[in-house]
Every structure is written in C-alpha cells, then in structure tokens.
Write a structure and sequence with these properties.
heterodimer; A: mainly beta; six-stranded mixed beta sheet; four-stranded antiparallel beta sheet; about 0% helix; about 50% strand; B: about 120 residues; seven-stranded mixed beta sheet; globular
Chain lengths: ~110, ~120
C-alpha cells in the first residue's frame, strides 16, 4: 500500500515571498503523483500532476512540483505567492497498474499574509 | 461539464438517526468515490464504484455504512444509527476512468454534524 506524508500542517508566508510545501510518499511500485488545492468553502480541485516524462511539472497559476524518485518526494513550490493562494494543499499518490484509489496526505494550510 | 454535485450541503442529526447523502457525478464518468474528511486531516477513502459495481471498501467502513450506485449514475451513502464520531465532511468524487492517472473531480462535500 502507498502512503503520503505532508510534514507541515501550516505554512505562513508573506505575499510575494517564495514558498515550498513538502510531500513525501512511500510505495513499493511506480506511482502517479498529484497536488490538489482546496480554497475556503470549495471542493478539492486538481492543481498539477506527475504521470511520466519530465520530472518538473507546472500549473497554470505559477506553481510547480518536481518528482524526485531517489528521495521519494514531490514538493510543491511557487517563487512568489499571492494572497489568493491562501488555501489547503493536498498531495496524493496512486499506484500505477494498481487500484485506482488515490491516497491523500493530511494537507498543508498555506496562509499568505499581506 | 456541470461538476460533481452533492446534497445536502449540511446535515445535522441526532445520535442514533439514519442519514443519506446523494452524489451526482460528472456525466459519463464511470468511476465514483466516497471519501471522509475530518478537521486537520486529508480525505480518507471509504468506497469506490466502477459504473454500478462497488469494487472496493475501506476497512474504515463499518457495517452501519452502505453505499449504492444504481444504474451507474448517481450514488447514495447511508449511515445508520449515527454516532458522534461520524461527524465529518463526506466527499464525493468522480473520474473518467482512463487509468490510475485520471485525476479526481470533487464535489463540495456534505458536512455531517451528529449531536
């Protein structure tokens, strides 16, 4: 079975500062990796995903994540955050070739201060 | 694509009562998932349907919980004899079923409060 660890439950940061949200996974087989974002009073929505190929993936709103197989990590980064990025961020993993059931981390609350 | 719809948005019930939630997935999505989320935690898998077949259930899902997806369209999740520990946000998600790499599309959830 796979598992996901998000070590930081809360990350406060000032507007326009860079941010990194950490995600580590555990799996004995190849995986697909996802970041979801949940804005206040809204459902989770996909932010970006790693399936194969280039280890660096980007979202349309400036976030990026890098798949590091040796460190079993998929950290999310943004070089300059905005107030509107305040949200809960969830890392998720699905085993390739296995059951189609994503396992989620506990989430990291990103709080952007003006 | 009208999104995943969940009803009701909120449900307050007394301990021991039965409750039922409904989820309408994105049309033509053949996979449907139920997750539960409590404060400070990520979504926890409850059960999963491929069309009308319930393919997997979590060990977390006690026999008080039952889910159905008749005709492979909408789904219902029923909790019988609710307990205070059942208080949580119940999330429904669907996916088009194109492999393990298909991302999930989530509804806004049903918040259950058991008093």
């Amino acid at each position: 079975a796979q598992s996901v660890t998000q070590l930081d439950s809360q990350v406060p940061v000032f507007e326009e500062a860079p941010v990194e949200l950490r995600c580590n996974y555990s799996s004995s087989v190849s995986v697909y990796l996802f970041w979801y974002v949940q804005y206040p009073n809204q459902g989770l929505q996909l932010l970006l995903k790693y399936l194969s190929g280039s280890t660096l993936v980007e979202s349309i709103n400036g976030f990026e994540a890098e798949f590091n197989k040796s460190q079993t990590s998929f950290h999310l980064r943004k070089p300059s955050v905005h107030i509107s990025d305040t949200a809960e961020y969830f890392c998720a993993v699905t085993r390739s070739g296995g059951s189609y059931i994503p396992t989620f981390g506990r989430g990291t609350s990103l709080i952007v201060h003006p | 694509d009208t999104g995943v719809s969940q009803n009701p948005r909120h449900k307050i019930t007394k301990r021991g009562q039965n409750v039922t939630f409904r989820c309408d997935p994105i049309s033509e999505h053949n996979r449907l998932y139920w997750y539960r989320q409590t404060l400070g935690q990520g979504p926890e898998f409850l059960t999963y349907f491929q069309n009308e077949a319930q393919l997997e259930k979590s060990r977390l899902l006690s026999d008080r919980f039952s889910a159905e997806r008749p005709k492979g369209s909408f789904s219902t999740l029923e909790i019988q004899r609710t307990e205070q520990g059942d208080s949580a946000m119940y999330l429904c998600a669907s996916s088009p079923g194109q492999g393990a790499f298909s991302p999930l599309h989530f509804g806004n959830g049903t918040r259950l409060t058991v008093t």
